[in-house]
Amino acid sequence: MNDQTALITGASSGIGFELARCFARDDYRVVLVARHLDELKEAARLLHQEFEGIDIVLLPFDLSLPDTPDKLYAETTARGLQIDALVNDAGFGETGYFSDTDVDTEMAIIQVNVAAVVHLTKLYLRDMVARNAGRILQVGSIASFTPSPCQAVYAATKAFVLSFTEAVQHELKQQHSAVTMTVLCPPPTDTNFFRTAHAENTRAAQHPASAREVAEEGYDTLMEGGARSLPTMGAKVNFFTSLLLPDSMLATIMNNQLHPAHR
After folding, report:
1. SS3 at position 206
2. SS in 3 state form for 108-138?
3. The pLDDT value given to residue 189
4. I want to staple 9 with a disulfide (CB 3.0 to 4.6 A). Which of 33, 38, 76, 160 is the partner?
5. What does each C-alpha distance from 246 to 26, 259, 261 come to in angstroms?
6. Do 22 and 5 touch, CB atoms closer than 8 A?
7. Up-side HSE of residue 151: CA atoms within 13 Å toward CB?
8. How far apart are CA 17 and CA 2, in angstroms?
9. Sign of the dihedral defined by the CA atoms of residues 77, 122, 224, 174, in that order
């Protein structure tokens, strides 16, 4: 063990699990956070199978509940766990016209994708700044750069993550802190996202990137202290397109991507 601990939210599957795998490979103790204990146990089984002797802590917490970040921080503190790397990966979306979608679902999206990210970052960043050491990875999206009709709330939350991260990155430089913060902006990726968002049949879901490839590129950027990771050529193309085209055209492109593939 290298005596460092990484806490990863949304760690039971997808990009979160693959990021946990990256930390485990480098002998971090990994604290896996997700809603369902049975899914966390399966993730731990897979990690133990690949990395014998790795130290894994399972914490089933529901980040859609406003008091969860405080409870999670209290739990890691009570266990004597110093969090050297925080990964805010947990997040989900919903697909459909905003006038038709469910407001309770969208408020939960905002709670998980925005409020929990801010709250957890606040709690663990204070300790990192006090120690003058630590890393934080915020998982955004290529949707961070574009308005996305039919996923209006989800895309707005990811735009928030990008803006929030870049602002705090600047603050850390102003404080001459050794703590680093990185934003990972993946393209459509082979995870449970599209199923949860009821978007399995959309054009965007047809040729997803590998969750492992996305996670490994994001992890490398985090370890290098980089500000932003655009994993895969697809993410880079989407980003540069967002710089060249007006928002109205970008919205039309995204709208087309979130309609059924057979149309």
Report:
1. coil
2. HHHHHHHHHHHHHHHHHHHHHHHHCCCEEEE
3. 77
4. 33
5. 42, 21, 24
6. no
7. 34
8. 20
9. negative
Helix, coil or strand: residue 150 = coil
The answer to whether residues 218 and 157 touch, using CB atoms and an 8 Å cutoff, is no
Per-residue exposure over 81-105, b if at least 16 CB sit within 10 Å of its own CB, e if not: ebbbbbbbbbbbbbbbeeeebeeee
Task: Find all residues with CB under 8 Å of 74, minimum gap 6, and list them.
Answer: none
Query: Which residues is 6 bridged to in the sheet?
Result: 30, 85
CB 89, CB 11: distance < 8 Å: yes
DSSP string, 70-120: HHHHHHHHHTT---SEEEE-------S-TTTS-HHHHHHHHIIIIIHHHHH
Write down the pTM of the prediction: 0.90
**CA 6 distance to own-chain centroid:** 14
**Nearest of 158, 76, 167 to residue 123 by alpha carbon:** 76
- Residue 200 pLDDT exceeds 80: no
Domains of the chain in start order, with CATH, are 5-257 (3.40.50.720)
Dihedral sign computed on CA atoms, order 156, 169, 133, 212: positive
Q: Can you tell me whether residue 44 is helix, strand or coil?
A: helix
Between strands 85-88 and 135-139, the pairing is parallel
Q: Which two tokens stand for residue 155?
A: 């895309």
User: Residue 4: helix, strand or coil by DSSP?
Assistant: coil
Name the DSSP class of 10: T
Residues 147-181 have pLDDT tens digits of: 889 899 999 999 999 999 999 999 999 999 999 99
Kindly list the catalytic residues: 154
